[in-house]
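Sample 1 of the test manifest.
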Amino acid sequence: MEHHNRITDRSLIRSKPFLDKEASARAKREIDAFLDGKIEEWNRTVPYARHFEGKQVHLPYYRQSLIEHCWRIRLMRSAQANALHRITKLHAEAAKLYAAYQDEEMLHDMLFMQDAERIGVSRDEIYATEPSFCTRLLAGYLYFVAEHEKPLGVICYSYLVEYTTQKITPRQIKAMGESLGKDHIRGQAAHLNTDLVEDHTQDMWDILSLLVDNEQDLTDIKRYLSEIQDLLKMFFEEMYRLHGAAEQQAA
Amino acid sequence: MPTLRFVNTGTQVEFTGSVALIEMEDHIMFGCKSGNCGTCAVRIVSGGENLSEKTDREHRLFELTGETDPAMRLACQCKAYGDAVLFEIN
């Protein structure tokens, strides 16, 4: 029996991408329009969706959302690193771009922890708080997608986060600067700055674009974005049940 | 030999000539390394005069975040030319 190379990984060979520059820009416009619709749906269906854009912030809600945000960053970076490992075997250049993004974002939980400390939540308290079931499900979903489906599904999480940050967070930061005080949200303002200046939305699209191999992948990007939004929605609905609903009943 | 002293970790580093603080990854946490995220913010306890001038990126980020303490610097943007004592924020 002849001996052949048992390694079939060809990720270092540059092939003609399925999406050329023009097709990629067209696909991005279509996905962005889809996401704009998802943002509208979010605002329409998630209670308290625009709470941080208001004049007053409900402190227990804000406090829990900050703690969870730290955990979300911490848990997702592990899930994303797992996907990165997969991507190295599919497309080395896409992996290089995602590694650069991870390098920039890896420690950004610190920025949210700084803001948590500014409202009296210590790092130890954050470490002692178990992340919600919904956040743990989200992390599990990203592992599942990377292991059994397509690693591009994990990049969809990064794209959704960056796209919505670009679209929504500037308004939130401006409003929270007034409601909570600018000095209380320094970490979040700095985090927003790096996402915008570095144009992480475009960076994530560039990775997605390299990983798209056929029309089905484009269809699946929309499915992944929808499912990820559903998982995130579960957490914010739970938060509302815990904080907002009680407040409204009391009012 | 000039020395950089890190208050939080209780460590110090000697150097010759000048040193970019971005090389101090064993002592300071860095994020974007390009003056945009503030992960590497440090408060200069002493020796500020031995550091390079604040860059436009530091001015921009501190203005954006409302940071008014003149002793705050972004380590990724600084070079040291002499002794300094730094308090690592993260």
